[in-house]
Amino acid sequence: MKHFLSLQDLDRNELMTIIQNGIAIKRQPERYATACDRKGALMLFQKTSTRTNLSFQSGINQMGGYAVPMDWNASNFSISPIRYEARYASRNCDFIVARLKKHSDLRELAAYATVPVINGCCDRYHPCQALADLMTIYEVSGTFEGITVTYVGILNNVANSLIAGCAMLGIRLLLVTPIVNEASWDGELMDQAIGSGLVTRMNSLTDAAAQSDYVYTDTWIDMEHYHSADYEAVKDFRMQTMLPYQLNRKALNGSTPYIMHDMPIHPGFEIEEELIESASSVIYQQAENRMHAQKALLLHLMES
Question: Which residues form the Aspartate/ornithine carbamoyltransferase Asp/Orn-binding domain (predicted)?
Answer without folding.
Answer: 145-300
